[in-house]
Specification:
By secondary structure, this protein is of the alpha/beta class. It folds into two domains: 150 residues, 3-Layer(aba) Sandwich (Rossmann fold); 116 residues, Rossmann fold (3-Layer(aba) Sandwich). The protein contains 13 helices and ten strands. It has a six-stranded parallel beta sheet. Helix 2 packs across helix 12. The structure holds D-glutamic acid. D-glutamic acid binds next to helix 4.
């Protein structure tokens, strides 16, 4: 197909309020090793989870607009808070596919629940938006959604406090209303929470029973992004070298501020050393 190849070879744009979205990049790297990724973390304005929908949408337009100026072929909104409020506006403003993280997580949860009760741990903004409840209702009207804002889990993940008494206590407090409701699936609806997966799962099994499913939406999102690109013939086609071996893609990091702890924090979310980031203004 003439004209399609350059689009296929363009990078995938990913953005988040900060560095937490690197959990999604990590999952994308595993699912789509040949893709080039341009990641933008709005580290100067993080957190978004405590801000209002209009502000988050305005910030999101700035981030997405910058990625478009870098020639991306599609945008993955790694941030749950942005995915909860901004995609309709982004889709109106931008002439390229915009993929959020809410619907893939909701679809996976709907497939996993046996009692039709799903819990969601997320930022205050995501919970207030009702986006997960709407997405789950679109999967099945039988599903009841129980949202719980879990704001303390964000700084715990940033600080690397992912094991021990403090995160366990926080997890128990946030899981208590979900246990009272009798959910059998808990969606980790925030970029940061996959770092606390083990502690949340352990506490959830103790409180909700051994069969509870904890859903890390990053993995589900990466799978859906891969299918989306494949279906639209947008997978990086030039990835096959002369010997037929796929060339690995590169990850480029853009940030709006370089925090002092950038190296450790980025490595914690990405699962490997991140390399240098380019600082940009929005
Ligand atoms: N990236 C945000 C999210 O997934 C968490 C951090 C923030 O509040 O900005 O909702």
């Amino acid at each position: 197909m003439k004209g399609a190849a350059p689009r296929r070879d363009a990078p995938l744009g990913v953005f988040d309020s900060g560095l937490g979205g690197l959990t999604v990049v990590r999952a994308l790297r595993a699912a789509l090793p040949c893709e080039d990724i341009v990641y933008l973390g709005d580290t100067a304005r993080v957190p978004y989870g405590t801000k209002g929908a209009a502000t988050v949408t305005r910030y999101a337009l700035g981030c997405a607009g910058h990625l478009v100026s870098r020639g991306v072929k599609a945008i993955v909104v790694a941030c749950n808070t942005v995915s909860a409020v901004a995609p309709p506006r982004l889709r109106v403003e931008l002439d390229l596919p915009v993929l959020g993280v809410i619907e893939p997580g909701a679809r996976a949860a709907a497939a996993a629940t046996r009692v039709f009760k799903v819990g969601v741990l997320a930022t205050a903004g995501t919970i207030a938006s009702g986006a997960y409840a709407r997405a789950l209702a679109a999967c099945s009207t039988r599903i009841e959604t129980y949202g719980q804002a879990a704001p303390l889990l964000v700084p715990l993940a940033e600080e690397g406090w992912t094991e021990g008494e403090v995160p366990a206590l926080a997890a128990r407090r946030y899981l208590a209303p979900l246990a009272a409701a009798g959910v059998d699936v808990v969606i980790l609806g925030c970029t940061h929470y996959p770092l606390l997966f083990d502690v949340i799962e352990r506490e959830a099994k103790a409180m909700l029973g051994p069969d509870v499913t904890i859903l890390d939406s990053a993995t589900v999102v990466a799978r859906e992004v891969a299918s989306f690109l494949r279906e639209r013939d947008l997978l990086r086609g030039g990835a096959l070298g002369a010997d037929g071996a796929a060339a690995p893609g590169a990850t480029r990091l853009l940030v709006t501020d370089v925090p002092k702890t950038f190296d450790e924090t980025a490595a914690r979310f990405l699962g490997e050393r991140a390399g240098a980031a380019e600082q940009i203004d929005l």
